[in-house]
Each structure stands twice: as C-alpha cells, then as structure tokens.
Automatic annotation (TrEMBL):
The protein's name: MBL fold metallo-hydrolase
Region ranges (Disordered): 146-178
Signal peptide (residue range): none
SMART domains the UniProt entry points to: Lactamase_B (SM00849)
Transmembrane residue ranges: none
Domain Metallo-beta-lactamase positions: 20-245
InterPro entries xrefs: Metallo-B-lactamas, NDM-1-like, RibonucZ/Hydroxyglut_hydro
Species the sequence originates in: Streptomyces pyxinae
Amino acid sequence: MRDGALVRLAAGAHLVHGGDTNWVILADGDAVTLVDTGYPGHHARLLASLAALGHTPEAVTAVLVTHAHSDHIGSAAALHRRYGTPVLGHPAEVPHLRRAFTHQVTPGQVLRAAWRPGVAPWAVRALRSGGTRDVRVTGAGAFPVAALPDRTPEGAPDGSPGAPLDLPGGPVPVPTPGHTDGHCAYLLPGPGVLLSGDALVTGHPTSRLRGPQLLPGMFHRDRSRALASLAVLERLPADVLAPGHGPVHRGPLDRAAALARGRAPR
C-alpha cells in the first residue's frame, strides 16, 4: 500500500484511501468486517489493504455497505462469489444492491456538469476504474432490522443509535437517507468514530471545498433528505469522521454537520 493509504481510526479500525473513494476495515482478532469496497478496478488495492493489516479475503466475515453506488460496492459481488462473503445493507438498500433499480448519477448529468472544474478528470478516472460495470450483488441481504434505531411517529429516525451488529467491530447502523433511499452510516460508539459513507464527506474531486460537506447535488437521490440526515448525524457521540470521500476529520461531529449544512448551496 502506498504511503498514507491506511489511516488508523481506533484500535482495530482503519480507513483506506483507495483513490477517489474510501473503504474501512474493522478487525476483531482474525475476523474482519469490510465497510464498502471501492470501485471494481480497486479489487487489487482492496486485497492489498487487507494483507497490509495481516488479513486474508477469507477472514472477511461480511461486507457491510453504506449504499450501493458502484464506487462503494465494486468488489462486493466478487467476494460473495469467490468466498461466500455475506453482503449486507439497510433493508431499503438491498433492492439497489441487487439492481432492481439504480439510483446513481447518469452520464447525461455528468456531461451537463463537465464544464465545472474537476468533473471531466473525475469522470475519466471513474470509467477507468470500472464505474459503469455491472456490480449487482444478487445474493445481498439486509442486516437485522432489530439493529435499527427507534423511529418517530412520522417514520423518521429519532437520532438515537440502534444496536450493534453482530459483526467484527460492532458497528451500529445509523439510517441516513437522501444520497440513496437506503443509505446508512455506521457508528463505532466505543472510540467515537462515525463511518459516514456519502452522507457527510470531507472532499471530492468535483468539489472545490475542503472539510465537512455534502457531495454536489447531482450525486444525491433526494438532496432535501440528505440535508435532513445531517440533523441525525450531529446528535451522534463521535469526534472522528471517516467519510466515503476525502480525508479523516477529527473534531466534534455536531460542528462538522453544522459546517456541511452551512456550506450547502441554497
């Protein structure tokens, strides 16, 4: 692995910068949970990141996805086919994983935004990394609904973390819809680490901003819900943010979420 690719978040938890996107390795002894897997073209990097921490692909107990965009599930199907690795996500995201439908930025949206700085080079790298390949995971399943937090009478998350999943690292699901309908972040309550996926990032090649922010609007299924999910995140007990894009951010999560809200275009 190149210098800086592996970032220690806490004991047994590392973020990996795969190139324009990140994934997380949670280890408990010899057992591993992978949170996201990068683009399809990052498979060798994914295996190298496991090896750098002393793990084999067979050690992966499950792939836990934040959401089913191709830059986050690129190796999930391969791991499932070759090693029988379970691929799990929020119940609302499972049909997306199986490609019953696709909620992802379209080529037309990218073309219309190609004049913006960074968009064209990012799009070329995404194509080279397999961004348009078929990454469906037909055998994907949902993590237990019992792990989800309680909901308000209106059906929205009440901001309280749910129960830890029975997986290495004990990640706690935090539903954060908006980027996709079933997007889910994961909290590591002991060390106070949030694996935010694309609900809250700290950088992207198509953005000039640095630090906590929402992704540009074209990437969200429902931008208003993505904004609303920041209110869920800002109530979580975490001071380390491990995003799906950009570097690790250290500082109170409520401030990070507030900064992202303030930077979001009106």
